[in-house]
Model the fold of this input.
Amino acid sequence: MPRTPAALVVALALLSACRGPAAPPPPVAVDNAALGLRFTGLPAGVQVTANEGERLTFSATLGSVTGEIAVHRANPAEGGVNLVAEARRYGAAAADAEGGKFFGANELVTPWGPAYKVRALVDRGSVEEQQILLLHPGDPQQLLALVLRYPPGTPEVARDRLAQFLDLLAALEPLPEPSGG
Done:
């Protein structure tokens, strides 16, 4: 049986080591042309469950508990979108609903301008919901809402869910205009 010279074995080992680890695959982009949005690099625990027409939803697993994130776009608002009024409207509706409780709103800064994060118990207190209300990054005359729903938990669970939700927001961008050609 022929023998491989030791120098060749060493050279192959060195060549393999010089290449280093394989580069990670590029982040998967989730495009939705009807909404005019792209999500690049979904956070850990977030997977697409529906993406057709204007329906875009994700499952959001944290620990062993799964929630759902839905993306909604409102029709263009006459006179523009008032995010403060939208956050107040959400809070009043949540507080007035049976079993509902509004936990408040916080202003966020995004690459597309201000946004508001609101949080409440909804569905007779059986679901905790967080929403991020912002101007659509491709059309600032439209309201965009990212809605995260999950079983109610402790303030720590809400904090961890918010971190996962903000990671998804960081992956949001307007879908590039198709190039004319």
Q: What stands out?
A: The chain has one domain: 27-174. Helices lie at 6-19, 83-96, 155-170.
